[in-house]
Amino acid sequence: MTKHTLTTATVALGMSAGILTTGMAAELAIIHDAEQNILQEEFGEQWAKQDAEISKKLAELEKKHGKKPNIIHIMWDDTSFGEVGIPVFNKIRGFDTPVLNKMGQEGITFTRMYTEPSCTPTRAAALTGRLAVRSGMYTVAFPPEGSGLPAEEVTIAEVLSEAGYSTAFFAKAHQGDIEEAYMHNQGFDEAQFSLYNQFPPIFWHRTGEAGAMTNGYTPEMTEKKYLVDSTWRPYGYIMDIEGKKGEQARETLPTTLEGTLENYRKLIEIHQEKALDFIKRKANDDKPFYLAYWPHVYDLNTQGQEITTSNSTPFAQNMERLDRHIGEILEELEKQGIAENTLVIAMADNGPMTEAPGAMYPNVFNGGKGDYREGGVRVAAFAQWPGVIEPGTIVGDIFAVHDLFTTFANLAGAKEHIPTDRIIDGIDQTAVLLYGDGQSRRDYYHIYTGPIHAATIKQQFKRVWLGGRPGLVKNDFYNLYQDPREERGMMAQMLWAWGPFDMVKKRHDQMNEKYPFTPTRHGVPFTGITNLRPESIQYQETVRKTMETGK
Amino acid sequence: MTKHTLTTATVALGMSAGILTTGMAAELAIIHDAEQNILQEEFGEQWAKQDAEISKKLAELEKKHGKKPNIIHIMWDDTSFGEVGIPVFNKIRGFDTPVLNKMGQEGITFTRMYTEPSCTPTRAAALTGRLAVRSGMYTVAFPPEGSGLPAEEVTIAEVLSEAGYSTAFFAKAHQGDIEEAYMHNQGFDEAQFSLYNQFPPIFWHRTGEAGAMTNGYTPEMTEKKYLVDSTWRPYGYIMDIEGKKGEQARETLPTTLEGTLENYRKLIEIHQEKALDFIKRKANDDKPFYLAYWPHVYDLNTQGQEITTSNSTPFAQNMERLDRHIGEILEELEKQGIAENTLVIAMADNGPMTEAPGAMYPNVFNGGKGDYREGGVRVAAFAQWPGVIEPGTIVGDIFAVHDLFTTFANLAGAKEHIPTDRIIDGIDQTAVLLYGDGQSRRDYYHIYTGPIHAATIKQQFKRVWLGGRPGLVKNDFYNLYQDPREERGMMAQMLWAWGPFDMVKKRHDQMNEKYPFTPTRHGVPFTGITNLRPESIQYQETVRKTMETGK
Prior knowledge:
Chains A, B: InterPro entries: Alkaline_phosphatase_core_sf (IPR017850), Sulfatase (IPR050738), Sulfatase_N (IPR000917). Chains A, B: Pfam families: Sulfatase. The structure is a homodimer. By secondary structure, chain A is an alpha/beta fold. The first copy, chain A, folds into four domains: about 5-60; about 70-200 and about 270-435, 3-Layer(aba) Sandwich (Alkaline Phosphatase, subunit A); about 450-515, Arylsulfatase, C-terminal domain; about 525-550, no CATH class. Chain A is built from 15 helices and 17 strands. In chain A, a hairpin with a 2-residue loop joins strand 13 (about 445-450) and strand 14. In chain A, helix 1 packs parallel to helix 3 and helix 9 packs parallel to helix 10 (about 315-335). The first copy, chain A, starts with a helix and ends with a helix. Mean pLDDT of chain A is about 90; it is low at about 1-10. The interface of A and B includes residues 93, 111, 363 and 485 of A.
């Protein structure tokens, strides 16, 4: 079965029913992963009919509000499923998330929202609609990095810009430190964003409040008599920059050895203010807007933080602050009278970082950040769209973070701007938002850890590829309904699934061969920033030397 | 500080406020565990005031309905917290419990309801209002047993009978096989109940559907040439008997070697019918009623069970059937017009039996049946009382299964019938039912595994006594808010709690010395049953010989 035959069949159906819209034609031109073609063959007719209904419904909404819907994607770090938005767990964990609880009660609670296992990959997947491994963004890099999201990737900001959306990015991008990867160079009209994750400003420095948790980063902490390379530590890293489409960037709050945690704390508030300000500015504009607000959340340093929860970890405070911040965003939508024309997705980017000191613990699933087990990739996620989403919807379907790309494009009438020369893993899941549980067009998900295909989920079953040995030895199979914590591998009971899973992998591998992964893009960091510090120039040198060595 | 000074102070307060009711005086005569005296000293005045309000409120309800409230206590086996009654988990586990979900949404969801770690002890604690270790009922016995709940224990049925309640017990008692332990000899007007747990009829037999899982119980499965004692296996066990207060019992459906699983399956339906019939008969009686309906739930044998859930374990089917059965009970209350004058508590008796084949898995906490970890003792529990309980209440307070004893007594105006010559661990928790979250009068719980004091919970903290070694080595402390799954012992961080926990244990041990535990009551089984089978008489012989050997 080829993509072509499917296309022809479904187009024929659409045409005979007189319902083939531009969006539907665009959808059929998109190259999805092999598994989706199987589903398309089974369900294509049904979906085409439903798409016609959806188009009608969206057109009515557009007529009512005078423009396409605004889209806000809020995504934060490292949170265990259950940690937020489920009232029973607030009692179990000893802190409160009333805003996200309300979001769940008045919108959608996802129970199988899958992400990549760590922040850089999940963010790349959301931006590109593709498994992170396809864009080379499969790892979480730390300074000195010298790599990032390739310019050739087409982001959701580019797709929505083409369709006339105003676009903005605030807070944590973590998409690398090379110029082509900057958010304002990747389609966003305006952006203020961080190049790396939170660890540098929270943990690395010696003075100010960060000093409480430092572990060797600062020069004093070394026996200098044993030959000490003063350029080895990445002192000149740049935490946060801002820029506008087509313009140069500038560093915002410098992360010198002094006062980094204080600056990081300021950044959390600044990003929040920027997000609110963007909403205020664009609320009554002719153009709809897309806001990617991916706030920094955690601040694991207790110093200077008032501890007010029974849970009494800094992380609990962080979650309560996040919840309040999201509350401010939702209130602003109400205040501006645009809540009913705005889809808000709020979700974590991956599971808890259980290695972080005294901070993050699993609630339901096993595993955490970096792990292919459910705890790493099955995240807290909620959607709000008053008047469109049925209140209190709990979705048991599989949904993937890269589906947001295609779904947002559909809502924006922008599907024809999705590139058709590469695999787009993201499926259009508008039906889930409009019709709720049982409407997902996906029953599979491939989990990569770094560049390695670690596991595949199909329906309620999961097969772990990583660690499997050739022959019939130690290959883990799980029934996730029975054993959501993946505690008892059931290869023997599930040998019926051996062959079917092999087929899924074979199809996936064949597609990957046809459309090879883009290698990780390397480059000199921090070009295109107007106010570079001397340490940052030194850092550039380190990366440049490494690149030359490799030649 | 002695019990007496507290009593005097509080009585003085009550008298000066002119609010000392019979119930309040009775409460003050009850001997609680040492920890409660500490709380009484801190909060006694506040509680006395609240008790006056509560008495008024209950008197108004009695006036409205013309009698005291009916009380139904539904308690079933071995269920992981989250397994039932929380919609998000229905999606995670792949089966539905709409009735219990509704109960949680319209009543109380408990998040810290603690039980004993296994069925016999939990049931003894609920019946007597005391830690099971105090009545010698600390273990789960299997045939041949020859022991049971001592006659001297005062059960909730006796207390409520004194206050004019009609009382009935149906389904799984598991309180032993000696005559004094039979439910109709322990205060219930009428009873049909099982003496042991589900394993004998489900697993042991060779024929019929039980044959699928047998493992050596039947005579054929033995090499007879190596001297085979034909009396060693407890062939004559009696699964289920019925009786009325003051009368002899009779065996209902015999569990011969043939057809036991079929009979067990019939029993599940019979007990349900009996419970419904009791409600119908007593609904419009002058007397209020107390119904202990502790249904058999599980049936781990797939044979003859239609599998209709995605979860596809027999256990999921069992849970769905339980949920339907509870739904029938609640519907009957509506039909009879007595829902608003009936408190229903629905709860599991302990955590999942993770050893059972392909059946039970943890959802949130670690550990299961038999374990002092949260997974063993922190159970799914819900309360319904329309018009009294605030809908959607989620209770984060500690509540213990033995608190139901004292709470039921208070609702029935029967506190003066609670014995005052022994420790009653059960605290009157009426305030939680009437006023919701944050109203518990308990912030501690002692966990026993068998006769061993395994762990103590105080507030959100837990100290594990079992396995601790003298000196400062390997003593487990947990902060349950941070680490609900008890995965990372935090002795070092919690050394501040070393001394305070020691004090709690010392006080508890001192009280135990003053009021010693009743030894396990032994006796000849099956006396007082009119229709004994020859195998059961043989079984009696085995026990009698053992008792004589011990002399």
